[in-house]
Design brief:
Rossmann fold, OB fold (Dihydrolipoamide Acetyltransferase, E2P), alpha/beta, 3 domains, seven-stranded mixed β-sheet, single chain
């Protein structure tokens, strides 16, 4: 096998990032945009010591699980990597991805049940984050997702996995930004004003919060005028905020967000509770699937404990803490984003939750300094997972059960391996499909500490 050579492969399975895996004379070859069961012709692009990478040239014999993508932009947009695969089979692939990660990375042998499907597979994504730029000659504003493995923006005018109103708001900004002398961002020169448009859509209220991320330290009149125009032209827009980000970074949000017109939050409903979701606060992008997860965790606690003391760590706007409060004696919630803490307190007051303490601060520091012990510790960390120090300190605070919620099977497996090394037992892992048509999968792991 040589670089540039065309070879025939039978795709055996998908790896944990949705990449196809095949073997040529016992040598592993990775290929994008393929489905298990495909027989394909590929071009060898790179050869490493233990594997090769190849690009798809031709599908010789398609897998029985291939289907026509419902989005015409699927091949060029980097968001829905698996949309060309039948949805039921997507769930089986994700089940296998979780199983292999837990086994190979975590060293844990445990049955992985079927993935709980998303109640909706279209129009489900209630958070939209579009980078913004403009064409070189005509200066036309473009906004969309990045082309795979690039920072080239695909100008997306219709996305079937998000609510239609989001497309309409983005299109309005495209067509009207220039009227207010608002320029698109040039990443190569760190010039131009409008960097991103973020929309938070409420599945519960059908309202929208629009956030304009700008390359400035203060809000110019042009952005204020654009914000007012968006607010006045869409009855479903409850508010428009501005976030300031001057850094030359891939991070979307800067540290400061300011409400320009209307309110700076939307209301969302999970497990019969109302939550206030802000511009830059964490909240699950698929509320209906998230509802399945929260009810699952709540039911587990109700069925296995009698009003336990619960610690909700990496709490965001305290969604887990508030949801499980009615089956708990006392809940302590810890979150470092202070805006999330404010909204969590507002949500707890609205829902008349009186048995929750909401603290602002770093979870690892809280673990190290807290003296109380809890029957249940809920961990819902970022995609990178927890540090060993945080896990060790969480163990010291937990009397019985850790419920670990993760969107990354690899880091979940790594962290479970550490917990098992400390004497814990993984009781169960339940996958949920939060991100339809992508390789991502959410998991709820139940870990006994004694």
């Amino acid at each position: 096998m040589n670089i540039g050579e065309q070879i025939i492969l039978n795709i055996e399975k998908l790896g944990n990032q949705g990449i196809g895996i095949a073997k040529k004379d016992g040598f592993v070859v990775f290929v994008n945009n393929v489905c298990p069961g495909d027989v394909v012709k590929v071009k060898v692009e790179k050869i490493k010591k233990n594997y090769a990478q190849a690009s798809l040239s031709e599908i010789i014999s398609p897998s029985q699980y291939r289907t026509k993508p419902f989005c015409p932009m699927q091949k060029v947009c980097g968001s829905c990597q698996l949309q060309f695969i039948d949805y039921e089979y997507q769930l089986k692939l994700k089940q296998q991805i979780v199983k292999e990660a837990i086994s190979s990375i975590g060293g844990i042998g445990i049955d992985i049940p079927q993935v709980v499907p998303s109640p909706e597979v279209k129009n489900y994504r209630c958070k939209v984050q579009y980078p913004v730029s403009q064409t070189k000659n005509s200066k036309r504003i473009i906004a969309g997702y990045y082309k795979p493995k690039s920072h080239e923006i695909i100008n997306i005018k219709y996305c079937p996995i998000q609510p239609v109103i989001c497309d309409e708001i983005i299109e309005y900004i495209r067509n009207n930004a220039a009227l207010f002398n608002v320029s698109g961002y040039d990443e190569t020169k760190s010039a131009g004003l409008l960097r991103h448009v973020v929309i938070r859509h409420s599945d519960y209220s059908d309202k929208n919060l629009v956030v304009l991320i700008i390359n400035s330290e203060k809000c110019p009149g042009s952005i204020k005028e654009l914000a007012s125009s968006i607010y006045n032209n869409f009855d479903s827009v409850s508010g428009v905020s501005v976030n300031y980000n001057l850094k030359k970074t891939n991070v979307i949000f800067g540290l400061k967000t300011e409400s320009i017109v209307g309110v700076d939050f939307i209301e969302e409903k999970l497990a019969d509770k109302i939550f206030y979701v802000g511009a830059d606060t964490f909240f699950q992008v698929n509320p209906k699937s998230a509802n399945n997860i929260f009810n699952y965790v709540k039911s587990y606690i109700k069925d296995n404990f009698n009003e336990p003391d619960v610690l909700d760590a990496y709490a965001g706007i305290s969604t887990f803490g508030i949801c499980v409060s009615e089956v708990s004696s006392n809940v302590v919630s810890i979150e470092e984003n202070l805006r999330s803490v404010d909204l969590a307190k507002k949500s707890s007051q609205f829902n008349n939750v009186t048995n929750i303490e909401i603290h602002g601060g770093d979870a690892a520091e809280f673990f190290a300094n807290e003296k109380r012990k809890f029957d249940v510790v809920i961990l819902d960390p970022p995609r990178k997972g927890c540090s060993e120090q945080s896990l060790g300190n969480a163990l010291k605070l937990c009397k019985d059960t850790i419920i670990y919620v993760s969107c990354n099977p690899a880091t979940l497996a790594r962290d479970l391996r550490f917990l098992v090394s400390k004497g814990c037992k993984v009781e169960s892992i339940q996958p949920f499909d939060m991100f339809c048509h992508t390789y991502h999968v959410e998991n709820v792991a139940v870990i006994k500490v004694k």
